[in-house]
Amino acid sequence: MDKPYSPAVDRNKGPIFEVLKDYVMEGTRLLEVGSGTGQHAVFFAEKFPSLTWVTTDLRENHAGINRWVQEAGLKNIKGPEELKIGVDDFPKKPFDYVFTANTLHIMSWKEGKTLFKLLGKRLREGCLTFFYGPFNRGGEYTSESNQEFDKSLKEMDPRCGIRNFEDVVKAMESFGFKLLKDHEMPSNNRLLVFERLSK
């Protein structure tokens, strides 16, 4: 099979790295929820050579991730592990960071809250979670392109859709996190950074 390819990943990986480099320390472990094509894993694992980057996704996406990972030949990429929110638990080893890009709007809100609960259960004090993607503000779209994107998502599956920033923050707080920073990103996206508080 040909390697899967996402033009969006090629566009956003550089700006995301500019944010992550201020938070991610070498010699640590990061879990990626929803690795998609595997492009992010390869790019960031090369940028952070002593960070262990663990890929996860639905089983049907593993072959594509493996193509990217095997071709890159980087020893600090692990997985892919099977992870379906609401069905599977995180891999058992401890993680310092969790990163996920463009996943909250393709999950149902119920699945999103299940993910938040799992983060609160599995991450210890001081661990960070990064959510990248589009978010609404006060129930309103932040751009016409986001509104059109949300419409296309709901046509695909009514349970999908761009999430409200305030709802995500409130839900994460209920599971023991605080918002550290809301980073503005290109193309009407954000990168939200949450820290796990003491249990």
List the SSEs and their pairings.
Blueprint (H helix, E strand, L loop, with lengths): L6 H14 L8 E4 L6 H9 L4 E6 L4 H11 L4 E6 L14 E5 L7 H14 L5 E6 L1 E2 L7 H13 L6 E2 H10 L2 E9 L3 E8 L3
Parallel strand pairs: 1-2, 1-4, 2-3, 4-5, 6-7
Antiparallel strand pairs: 5-9, 8-9
Helix pairs in contact: 1-2
What does it look like?
- The radius of gyration is 16 Å and the shape is globular.
- The chain has one domain: Rossmann fold.
- 37% of the residues are buried.
- α1 packs parallel to α2.
- The strands form 2 sheets. The protein has a 7-stranded mixed sheet, with helices on both faces.
- The model has no long low-confidence stretch (mean pLDDT 97).
- It has 6 helices and 9 strands.
- With 199 residues, it is of the alpha/beta class.
Strand fraction: 15-25%
Question: Based on the structure given, which CATH architecture is correct?
Answer: 3-Layer(aba) Sandwich
CATH fold field value = Rossmann fold
Helix/strand-derived class?
Answer: alpha/beta
The CATH superfamily is identified as Vaccinia Virus protein VP39
State the helical fraction: 25-40%
Q: Gap between N and C termini, in Å?
A: 46 Å
Largest sheet: 7 strands, mixed
* SS element count, helices: 6
Provide the residue-averaged pLDDT: 97
The helix-strand sequence is HEHEHEEHEEHEHEE
- What CATH first level would be assigned? Alpha Beta
Spans of at least 5 consecutive residues whose pLDDT stays below 50 are none
Strand order, largest beta sheet: 3-2-1-4-5-9-8
Q: Tally the structural domains.
A: 1
* Number of DSSP-assigned strands: 9
**Tell me, what's the shape?**
globular
- Give Rg in angstroms: 16 Å
